[in-house]
Amino acid sequence: MWTWLESLPLVWAKVAGTIFFLLVMLWALLRPREYVFRGAPDRKAWRDLRLWAAVVLLVQIILYIEF
Amino acid sequence: MIEGIDLFIVLFFITGVFLVGIYFKRFIRTSEDFFLAGRKLAWWIVAMSIIGTNIGSYDYVGGAGAAYSVGIAQANFEWLGAIPAMVISALLFVPYYWRAGVYTVPEYLGRRYNQGVRTIEAALWGLFLIACLSIFFYASGKMIEQYVGWDLWIGITVTAVVVGIYTVTGGLTAVAMTDVVQLAVMLVGGVAFAVIGFDAVGGWDGLVSKVTAEHPTHFDLFLPMDHPDYPWLGMVLGLGLVLSPAWWCCHQAIIQRTLGAKSEWDAKAGMLGAAFLKTLVPLLYVLPGLFVVALCTEQLGTKDDALPWAIRNMLPVGLAGLVFAAFIAAIFSSVDSTLNSAVTIWTRDIYQRFIVRKAPDRHYLHFGRWLTVGFVLIAAPLAPLTKEFGIYKAMQMALTIFQGATLGTVLLGVLWARSTRWGGLTGLVGGVALSVLLTVAGVNFLYVAWWSFLASLAINVVVSLATKAEPLSKLRGLVYGLVMEDGEVQDALEERAKGGK
After folding, report:
1. CB contact (8 A) between residue B264 and residue A31
2. Which residues of B touch A60 (CB under 8 A)?
3. Which of A51, B32, B105, B215 has its CA at a distance of 20 to 30 angstroms from the CA of residue B130?
4. Is B267's CB within 8 Å of A47's CB?
């Protein structure tokens, strides 16, 4: 079923993985501000969960590019 | 075999966890306190409890063995196979579960679709979690037998008594707080292991050169398509897109911690905080597996002998006890969470739904406690059978069989208002049926998950479009894109939550 994929260089796996992480990061960053802060005791920058998501995914992108 | 100061450290740890657990009995007055920690958990407790629940003893032994065998590709289960799904769970699924005021994922599906979907999901998860409990008891007894030298039954009994007592008395609060202690011990043990290992192999460069000398792909996260266990496409499609989201968005033991959060923000932040911790998990077992590749010159019997070799040959007195305490922590945190979640599903979705519908709250609290005792008394004696009948493998298979269909059903339930009760029911049943067929046909489990997920989505869409749409009044607050922050909607959700409907 995946015969044609077997001939692709392994670098395409890295490309696919990185695109996957980037798409999830983009989706997270596009969440409305009200939505991510709902229930928070204040609106300090460190409570912005979009930033949490971006940082944790950025670490993944670095790991997958490196290895 | 550990002894002396190492054994003292292990016994000190077990006693400490027990005392921490029973301390929280004083906070349990209602069934909500018992099942959801009174919805008072801060985000960092949720985060640590999620990871404590997620790491089991097999992650240590089997994970280190797999890292010894295939290298850091094993870390895909912690990174690609977890982090994106945890972000999606935190920012898409968790807010809907939390606002709905439900106790279980099947309960959410019952409100979104109908009670048939709820019952099927509850039965699948309820049986699966009890089977898991037996497996965890066996793993604990076996580990204690191997490292401490106690008889298998003594190890199982110690685990059942210690974990059983604090779970019965303190409910989710005790489970979550002991998870915090247990994860801290695991991380300290992992860091200590890493320091000693890097010292022995000559730092990072020494590790890489020693390992890649004979195993050139051991530092590759992706392996070729013809790899028998971890083909990269299967990793991306099966693990990254289906199995992992199904685990992190739909697994009762994982989601239940977020449902106990004190606010919607804490629930979401708890899951994202867990994603940060998850990034560190390969430190606990992938790294030790690689240390063994670099240092071990003898032929190991099986790959699962890698970690015991590392403990015997790398760790000084005192540290071996700490690392073994980390193993015990991993197994205790999995046992207590599975026990509490199984009891929650059986009480909320089966007992309260079909047997005793309208009793005072204390009735369900007492029932939950007695059921906890009952599950311990059932699962512990059955533990040795898990090896005899290959139940561990069956459990993995069962998980694959219903996870893809579950994800498809939950995903359309949250995202698509047009999805109907009949769409949800047929999509769930059809997806599970296809999984069974593919598994019997011998298809790799990663692809089974992928195709059953797609089948579940397709059946749900087709049947939903062919059946009458659900009234919007039923869906408000439960589906993405409909009103969420309206006070009237929230009041209605909370009213339905009180009734357990």
Report:
1. no
2. 79-80, 83-84, 279
3. B32
4. no
CB B84, CB A57: distance < 8 Å: yes
Tell me the C-alpha distance between B347 and B172, whole Å: 14
- Burial classification of residue B129, based on how many CB atoms lie within 10 Å of its CB (0-12 exposed, 13-18 middle, 19 or more buried): buried
Which residue bears the tokens 């966890």? B17
Chain A residues closer than 8 Å to B79 by CB: 60, 63-64
Q: Closest-CA residue in chain A for B43? A: A40
Among B91, B236, B240, select the one facing A49 at the smallest CB separation.
Answer: B91
Identify whether the C-beta of residue B325 lies closer than 8 Å to the C-beta of residue B13: yes
For residue A61, what pLDDT band results from cuts at 50, 70 and 90?
very high
Decide if pLDDT at B125 tops 80: yes
CA-CA distance, B63 to B109, in Å (whole number)?
33
Which among A17, A27, A63 is the nearest to B236, CB-wise? A17
Beta-carbon-side half-sphere exposure of residue B420 (alpha carbons within 13 Å): 15
Count of beta carbons in the 10 Å neighbourhood of residue A28: 24
For chain B, how big is the Rg over CA atoms in Å?
A: 22
Backbone angles phi, psi at B218, to 5 degrees: -70, -10
**Cβ distance of A10 and B90 shorter than 8 Å:** no
CA distance B84 to chain A (A): 6
CB contact under 8 A, A2 and B233: yes
Q: How far apart are CA A58 and CA A64, in angstroms?
A: 10
Query: What is the pTM (predicted TM-score) of this model?
Result: 0.89
pLDDT in tens, B407-458: 999 999 999 999 999 999 999 999 999 999 998 898 877 788 889 999 999 9
Q: Are B1 and B147 in contact (CB under 8 A)?
A: yes
Residue B244: count of CB within 10 angstroms of its CB: 27
Phi/psi for B223 (5° steps) reads: -110, 160
Task: Find the farthest-apart pair of alpha carbons in chain A and give their distance in angstroms, rounded.
Answer: 54
The confidence score (pLDDT) of residue B378 equals 92
Q: CA–CA separation, B155 vs B1, rounded Å?
A: 14
Angle between helices B152-201 and B306-314 (to 10 degrees): 70
Handedness of CA B57, B61, B62, B66 (dihedral sign): positive
Reply yes or no on whether the pLDDT at B389 is more than 70: no
Chain B hits for A13, Cβ within 8 Å: 222, 232-233, 236
State how far the Cα of B35 lies from the Cα of B371, in Å rounded to an integer. 12
**CA dist A57 to B83, B182, B372, B472, Å?**
7, 26, 38, 36
Model confidence pLDDT, tens digit, residues B174-198: 989 998 988 998 898 889 889 999 9
Cα separation of B412 and B418, whole Å? 9
Provide the shortest C-alpha distance from residue B279 to chain A (in Å).
8
Smallest Cβ–Cβ distance between A56 and the set B219, B276, B485 belongs to B276
